[in-house]
Amino acid sequence: MPQQQPPQVQPPQWFLRPSRYGLTVANGVTAVRLILVPFIVVALFDARFETAFWLALIAGATDAIDGYIARHFGHKSIVGAYLDPVADKVLILSLFGTLTFQGHLPLWLVLLALARDVAIVATVAVFARLKKADLRMQPLFISKLTTFAQISLVLATLADLAFVIDLGHARTGLVWAAAVTTIASWAAYFVEGLRALRATEVRPTALEP
Fold first, then answer.
1. Domains of the chain with CATH codes
2. Which in 8, 24, 69, 175 has the greatest CB count within 10 A?
3. Residue 208 pLDDT class (50, 70, 90 cuts)
4. Confidence of residue 5 (pLDDT cuts 50, 70, 90)
5. 30 with 46: CB under 8 angstroms?
6. How far apart are CA 131 and CA 116, in angstroms?
7. Cβ–Cβ < 8 Å for 40, 80
8. How far is CA 85 from CA 35, 166, 184, 196, 209, in A?
9. Residue 190 phi, psi dihedral angles, 5° rounding
10. What angle do CA 30, 31, 36 make, to 5 degrees?
């Protein structure tokens, strides 16, 4: 009896295949988030709040879309691993800074968000310097939650400005949610850094020949 041939898996379309240089659809979607940032900031300074809201909504949606494409089509890459968090930080800090300058968000919140990001980068750099090890901490769930809370606050603030829907109490709750998750993610990354250092200390070294 002839053996049944296994079904052939069709390769993905050329535009969905990952590139060795990191030129993937997922990274292209992430780049859209970076490109939209100056347009949103200009719209805010021009008091075109409705335009800023819709552009910010598209930018926030790209954060979910690029992650789905990267996982579903195998587009995870080193470029994407760096580009995605950079795009998040540029978007959030730019909009936080602009909205704070215009008096729509409290100054202490943007300072807290900035201090958290600077502290994480500085902690990893110092730990790596002391141990002469390249510490690469994976993104934590609390970090994703922080990003979601911060983007939700930005969108709620822009929606309130654009459509005058009186989200005062909701915005206050989102301010505190963003603050709490920011502090929690700061602490979580510090603990993760200590854990990574302990793992480096107990890692066996190669025997001398």
1. 20-200 (1.20.120)
2. 24
3. very low
4. low
5. no
6. 22
7. no
8. 15, 32, 18, 20, 42
9. -65, -45
10. 105
